Amino acid sequence: MVRRRRPVAFARSGGLVEVRLGDEERDLVANLAGQFRSLLSEDAGPDQRRLYPTAYLDDPERDADYAALVHDDLLRSRLEAADVVSATVGNETLDPGELEQWMVVLNSLRLVIGTRLDISEADEFDPEAPDVAERSLLLWLGLLLEEAVEASLGFLR
């Protein structure tokens, strides 16, 4: 039996990364980047819990100081990343900096969706679960992130 390798979403091509997503996938990424940007514009809510984790579990005062120190920078960098993804989602290639911004958004989306689903690494995929669409999206984002990281490693070697 011959196993066909499924096409990858990102592939290094010289000093750039080729984006091999179809139109529907690009539309989905654009939509998700826009939703992510909207979510970040809201006050911190339960969906953002994993985006801004507690740094000092046993010291609320130090944790509040830490949050005050880093929150605005994290927010600004994530908003910039969402803007880059929205601006480049139709591109055939990405430069290493653009790919890095894609990775920020893909990972952040995974954290938000995982929080909404209240799942952990130990949870198994259940195709019969009522939230199978959201879980499938989470898996797809993980796959895209893995391939983006793999493509980016070539720039570090």
Outline the structure in words.
There is one protein chain. The chain has 157 residues and is mostly helical. It has one domain. The chain is built from four helices and three strands, in the order ββααβαα. The chain has helices spanning 23-41, 60-88, 96-117, 132-156, and strands spanning 10-13, 16-19, 93-94. Strands 1-2-3 form a three-stranded antiparallel β-sheet. Strand 1 and strand 2 (16-19) form a beta hairpin. Helix 1 packs antiparallel against helix 2 (60-88), helix 2 crosses helix 3 and helix 3 (96-117) runs antiparallel to helix 4 (132-156). The longest helix has 29 residues, at 60-88. The radius of gyration is 17 Å and the shape is globular. The chain starts with 9 loop residues before the first strand and ends with a helix. 20% of the residues are buried.
| SS strand fraction | 5-15%
The beta-strand count equals 3
Largest sheet: 3 strands, antiparallel
Radius of gyration from the CA trace?
Answer: 17 Å
Which structural class do the helices and strands define? mainly alpha
How much helix is in the residues? 55-70%
Please write the string of helix (H) and strand (E) elements. EEHHEHH
| CA(first)-CA(last) distance | 35 Å
Number of domains: 1
Treating each run of at least 4 consecutive H or I residues as one helix, how many helices?
A: 4
Shape summary: globular
Q: What is the subunit organization of this protein?
A: single chain
Low-confidence stretches: none
